[in-house]
TrEMBL record:
It is an enzyme of class 2 (transferase). Transmembrane segments: none annotated. Keywords: Endoplasmic reticulum, Glycosyltransferase, Membrane, Transferase, Transmembrane, Transmembrane helix. Residues 8-48 form the ALG11 mannosyltransferase N-terminal domain. This is GDP-Man:Man(3)GlcNAc(2)-PP-Dol alpha-1,2-mannosyltransferase. The lineage of its organism: Eukaryota, Fungi, Dikarya, Ascomycota, Taphrinomycotina.
Length: 289
């Protein structure tokens, strides 16, 4: 049996090495590559060994204009909202555990007033089982009466929740970009996201020399970030919300359109140059051919 397992592992290792070689070689055939974040660009640059002029960042478009209509100055419920599919990599368990630490240990005065609102889609039976496990986790941690699960909520209702809540949170590690975090900031929430990849390098970064949100790595640091955000006084909170909203405009649909157009113009220039070179070769073939 162990020999069979060993052979299987060897085959898998060889498969992934071959795949990695093919993946690494693919980039050499691209004239222009667009990456959706600084983290993705760094990854592609390292794997594909591309010259800087062949690689550019084009952030995904976010409807920040519509979300920014949500006012940042009104009083909000001290609720924490997470909008993410119920997939394993979204790590809802860390968020639930952090919320339990928050209301049991760090800010017990919120135990009966603050709510954790989990909004997401369920794709298949595996997601359904995972959702049930998350519900069970809330009972195990004695926060089930303070956690709401919403499946396949209409976007209008999602916006309503965003406009009422204090914090928007995501716990996914190495998320290439993190458009959900941008949506939190555009809607005037205080974002608490994983301290990695897109949120770390592009989104939850200082703007106008001041903080726009929080980043965390584990249960305790997420809980501490929640507490810090919820303890802000009215003026500090409003100022951070406004900075976050302004910062989110860097990822607007207009910015995306401009970046896309810039890359397309460069692509057409390269195509024109190659077409001229092909025509020249056809008209004046090399001697001997």
């Amino acid at each position: 049996m162990f020999d069979k397992i060993s052979r299987t592992n060897i085959v898998k290792m060889l498969y992934w090495r071959l795949f990695a070689m093919l993946y690494a070689g693919t980039g050499q055939f691209a004239d222009i590559v667009m990456a959706n974040s600084s983290w993705t660009m760094s990854h592609l640059s390292r794997i594909w060994k591309l010259e800087p002029n062949r690689l550019s960042i084009v952030y995904p478009p976010c409807d920040t204009k519509a979300l920014s209509q949500i006012t940042v100055d009104k009083m909000r419920n001290k609720d924490i909202v997470c909008v993410a599919q119920f997939r394993p990599e979204k790590d809802h368990a860390t968020i639930i555990k952090a919320f339990a630490v928050l209301v049991h240990d760090l800010m017990p005065e919120l135990a009966h007033t603050s709510r954790l609102i989990l909004i997401g889609t369920v794709r298949n039976q595996s997601d359904r089982v995972r959702l049930q496990a998350l519900r069970a986790l809330t009972e195990e941690l004695h926060v089930n009466r303070s956690v709401d699960f919403h499946e396949d909520l209409p976007w209008s209702k999602v916006i309503e929740r965003l406009g009422q809540s204090w914090i928007g949170t995501n716990a996914m590690w190495n998320e290439h970009f993190g458009i959900g975090v941008v949506e939190y900031m555009a809607a005037g929430l205080l974002a608490v996201a994983h301290d990695s990849a897109g949120p770390k390098m592009d989104i939850v970064v200082d703007f106008e020399k001041s903080r726009t949100g929080y980043r965390a790595t584990d249960v305790l640091s997420f809980a501490e970030c929640y507490a810090s955000a919820l303890r802000l006084d009215v003026a500090e909170c409003a100022a951070m919300r406004r900075r976050a909203q302004k910062s989110s405009a860097r990822f607007s649909e207009d910015i995306f359109a401009s970046a896309w157009q810039r890359v397309m113009i460069e692509t057409m220039k390269i195509e024109k140059s190659k077409r001229l070179a092909r025509n020249h070769h056809l008209q004046f073939p090399m001697n001997g051919f």
